[in-house]
Amino acid sequence: MAVSPQTNCTLAEVANRMHELDDFVVCGHVSPDGDCLGSQLALAAALRRLGKRVSCVLVKDEPVEANLLRVLGGAQDLVFDGKTGRGKTHLGVDVPTRERIGEAACALLDQAPFSFTIDHHAVDTTMCDMVYVDPDAASTTMLIWELAGYLGVERTGAVANCCYTGLVTDTGRFQYQNTDERCMSLAAEMVAAGADPASVSREVFQNRTYASMRLEATAIMRAEFSEDGATALGYLTREDFARFGAQKSDAEPVIDALRRIEGVRVACCASRRIASAEASAQKTIRMCRPLRARSAAEVMLPRRASRCAARLMRPLRRFALRWQRRCALREARGIWAVVGCRSGQTLGHDIARRGESVPSDFRREARGTYRHA
Prior knowledge:
Blueprint: H1 11-19, E1 23-27, H2 34-48, E2 53-57, H3 66-71, E3 78-79, E4 89-93, H4 102-111, E5 115-119, E6 130-133, H5 140-151, H6 158-170, H7 181-192, H8 197-205, H9 210-222, E7 224-226, E8 231-236, H10 238-244, H11 254-259, E9 266-272, E10 282-287, H12 303-326, E11 335-341, E12 345-350, H13 360-367
Parallel strand pairs: 1-2, 1-4, 2-3, 4-5, 5-6, 8-9, 10-11
Antiparallel strand pairs: 7-8, 9-11, 10-12
Helix pairs in contact: 1-5, 2-5, 2-6, 5-6, 6-7, 6-8, 12-13
């Protein structure tokens, strides 16, 4: 366990401070995944067992994956109204920066008398009073599980199942290379406390919509390969989402299908999904080996994958420009690119809205100029 330089406390100190407070609002990041939602709901359940008043807030008014809601205890308590939680102690979980919590949650943070961050993403900045970040943790729910122990509450029921859900999703069913002895040990504790691996697996991994399967098939059929099959580039259009009646969450598994193709080291799936002016562009890099990143600036891809990712940038840039011309767009807005390697741990960045530019941090990352941690 190696906490980040921005960490200014221990989990025991976080627990002691929480005992002194009564009103909390728990926030995650935009487009919450299983680890984010699991962390929020597990921590909320633990604090309620201490008699605390807790609000669990979605930081953006957007659909949440239905299969996660079915398996996570307390999901019915998730709210978004931009007002819930004003003036309460702010708990940011699985999110290290203000850019990732959205405007509504930023307003709650600004009005909070005190704030905490509990996360496993290493960044160079902080946004809260007490910060605990452990980049070695495979999921934030691992830290919430340990925190609940320091709080002295029973870690049964929703606490166990939510923590297990976050852990199993962030490790890709314990297949990604962030899976280690500590991860498996805590998973065993969660199961012993009542987490149900079978129901989590059934709901999260074995319960895809027909629209999701059709998106996957479409992206695979369109895949373009380069570097002797080491890179794969697939894409989905807004029309694909409309034709299949698909939602944003239906595209999440597509990158996994592309990177599982034999010989592929780096895969990318780009999709244009949003018609509004709020269309966002984002990419996600999936690492090939576990990283001990002391800061976001020290994260890198292994050498072979780095070379593949660097070369993938050229066809990705050409793809964005081609899409821009094809759609007669002044900007390649709304293109969501997901770049993944064979193991799976994710690191997110915002990318430039203009198709002709790729942000310098990603170019450096893809070229492997960062040192091995």
